[in-house]
Amino acid sequence: MKTIPGPYAFHITENDTHGGHTIRLKGRLTIDTASACLEQLLAALKKKSPPFYFDLSGVASLDDYGSLVLFEIKHALKIPETEFHILNPPEAYKKTLSLVNFDFDTRCSVLEGRKGSNTIVQLGESTLAALSVVKFMVAFIGAIALSTSKIFRQPKSLRLNDIISYMKSTGVDALPVIALISFLLGLIIAFMSSLQLKQFGANIYVASLVAMAMVSELGPIMTAIVVSGRTGSAYAAEIATMKISEEIDALTAMGFDPTLFLVIPRLIASLITIPLLTVFANFFGVAGGLLIGIGLLDLTAGAYITQTLDTLTIFELLWGLMKSCVFAILIAGVGCLKGFQARGGAAAVGQAATSAVVTSIFLIILFDSMFAIIRSYIG
Amino acid sequence: MPDTPVVEVKNLSVRYNEALILDDISFSVKAGERFVIVGGSGSGKSTLMRHMIGLESPDQGQVLINGTDMTCCSGSAFHDALRKIGVLFQGSALLGSMTVGENVALPIMEFTDLPKTAIASMVRMKLSLVDLECYEDHLPSEISGGMRKRAGLARAIALNPSILFLDEPSAGLDPITAAEIDDLIRHINQSMGTTMIIVTHELESIFNLAQRLIMLEKTSKRIIAEGTPADLKQNSTEPLVKRFFSPRQ
Fold first, then answer.
1. Which chain B residues touch A113 with a CB distance below 8 Å?
2. How many helices (H) and strands (E) does chain B have?
3. How far apart are the first and last CA of chain B?
4. Which of A76, A116, A187, A232 is geometrically suited to a Cys-Cys bond with A288, CB 3.0 to 4.6 A?
5. Which residues of A352-369 are buried (b: 16+ CB within 10 A; e: fewer)?
6. 8 A C-beta contact, residue B156 and residue B83
7. Does an H or E element contain A11, and which?
């Protein structure tokens, strides 16, 4: 005979007449005691032979977790139906016991969550998903074209207040971080290049190098990367939230064009502010170089600025700005597209924001490479 | 012990900034009772419930749940008190990245040491109780609003709480689904002896569920009526209560 102390107890006795064992359960068989009771009963009954008679006459309290203990014992020890018996259940707990179907085998399988399909099905699903993304993208670009043409026909349909608000969040609010990053970048380029150029007495060319690097390459690309992290993700998250909370459906139902309402103002705001931010980035980058030029290379401010202006041409400036305009379209377009593609619950918002940042940074670098190749042909 | 109060709200007053939302609210709920808080939109029903479950702190007053003051306890005492209650939120508040089954399993995994197979069995038992056994692997976004409510209810009762708070359980549902949810609430109350505190303004649900109710009023921010629905409907002299319970013309 075995007795386990605690808020519950069980006594196991050998049956003389029918064979097998009787387990007399006492005390509370509830959520608080279920896991310990199950563990101890399983350990105790593992080496005993069925049939098992569970006598519940001494049970003071039993809930569905208590019923679960009996159910788990039956299935874990693979006790056949004919060798598993519940005796003397108190009247009050018969209903609780009836909640459990002791014959139901599938209840012993672990929760599987979402079942994954096989590789071929996954490949097919991925292909279809990729094709539907392409279809969605083409429809999205078409919708932007249609909305743009509508603006030319009905200029009043353009939401100017929204554009100003987005210009503030995309441009003004991003200025401090872009200024700081560009200043430090100019400073680093100047310092690193000075280490080499100083050896040839070509300190003045540090100004040329910083100006060229910032205006034609680093200014546009750094601005675009910072803005895609700040603004592209925000656009995607905002629109995804609106999508899953049916706000976009509400706009459509009210007769609004969601593209005109949500995408065009963001696109225009980005097209105005990102080139402007690039100009500021160029300025602060040159200022960073100037600090090194004056502080470490014994150049005068006048000489540094003159050399910078001599190096830069209008074409260089416009080339950089043209690149930043393309990057602006990519950032706003991808951000809005990913927002519109969101489906499901709160997790879809996070996925949309992440996907917008990753995709737009990839596209920025891809387009920058293409610009570099075109530039090499232009000369 | 049926007359023992398990929830006591004493002189509760709530302000948001300077605006008074609830003024000197006092009532108690007995063990096993289906208690309903009613009132018009903006009368502070949901605010009262949020204070009762300790999500927000009042300006003054006490909320005692099984003797624990939810307004000032913290740490393990607060978590022990929360362990005894279940909450069904108005929007169900299922975690969107998890399946229905995983949502129900979450509290069981966190607060018991049961093996995975036993947890799976318990999840299926709870889901069968709310008639959702076939939807274990569905995401919340893939099921209907009524199903989400039932899944939320299954999660709320996962740990057999002694007190269940339900915020607008049948709001936004069609009359048949709303009646099914009401039946389910009665069934859980009767089979498990769970004390139910229900916030609603659905007249059908009030008559289906309430054994006793209080009515909050938007202007005075106080309780203006307390009793059974039938008693208030027939005997109340308060014009607002009469209007609330009379059918629309």
1. 99, 101-102, 137
2. 9, 10
3. 43
4. A187
5. bbebbbebbbebbeebbe
6. no
7. strand A8-14
Cα separation, A156 vs A172, in Å, equals: 25
What is the per-residue DSSP string for A160-184? HHHHHHHHIIIIITTHHHHHHHHHH
Cα(A266)–Cα(B142) distance, integer angstroms: 31
pTM of the model: 0.71
Chain A residues touching residue B160 (CB < 8 angstroms): 30-31, 63-65
Contact B117 A345 (CB under 8 A): no
Q: Is B80 on the interface with A (CB under 8 A)?
A: no
Nearest CA in chain B to A94: B191
Residue of chain A minimizing CA distance to B106: A111
Residue A29 has phi, psi (to 5 degrees) of -115, 80
Percent of chain A with pLDDT over 70: 93
Contact list in A for residue B121 (CB cut-off 8 A) is 68, 71-72, 107-108
Going A368 to A222 to A315 to A306, the CA torsion angle's sign is: negative
Query: What is the Cα–Cα distance from A242 to A258, expressed in whole angstroms?
Result: 11
Q: Residues of B with CB below 8 A from A110's CB?
A: 116-117, 120
Residues A82 and A45 sit within 8 Å (Cβ to Cβ):
no
Render pLDDT for A250-283 as a digit per residue (tens, 0 to 9): 788 777 889 999 999 999 999 999 999 999 999 9
Which residue in B has a C-alpha nearest to residue A62's C-alpha?
B192
d(CA A289, CA A89): 87
**Coil, strand or helix: which one is A49?**
coil
- Residue B99: which of B171, B148, B168 has the closest Cα? B148
pLDDT tens sequence across B55-109: 888 889 999 998 888 888 777 788 888 888 898 988 888 887 789 999 999 889 8
Separation between Cα atoms, residue B63 and residue B10, nearest integer Å: 6
Residue A274 phi/psi, 5-degree rounding, is: -65, -45
Quote the minimal CA–CA distance from B123 to chain A in Å: 9
Name every chain B residue with its beta carbon within 8 A of the beta carbon of A68.
Answer: 114, 118, 121-122, 125
Residues in B 127-166 with any Cβ partner in A closer than 8 A: 129, 136-137, 139-141, 159-160
Q: Give the pLDDT score at A341.
A: 92
Query: How far apart are the C-alpha atoms of A2 and A10, rounded to whole Å?
Result: 7
Q: Is B1 on the interface with A (CB under 8 A)?
A: no
Question: Pairing between strand B34-39 and B212-216?
Answer: parallel
Q: End-to-end distance of chain A based on CA atoms, in angstroms?
A: 96
Q: DSSP string of B39-94?
A: E-TTSSHHHHHHHHTTSS--SEEEEEETTEETTT--HHHHHHHHHTEEEE-TT---
- Locate tokens 């903006």: which residue? B42
Angle made by CA atoms B64, B67, B70, in degrees to the nearest 5: 40
Answer whether the bond into residue B5 is a cis peptide, omega within 30°.
no
Structure ipTM: 0.75
Contact: B139, A96; criterion CB under 8 Å: no
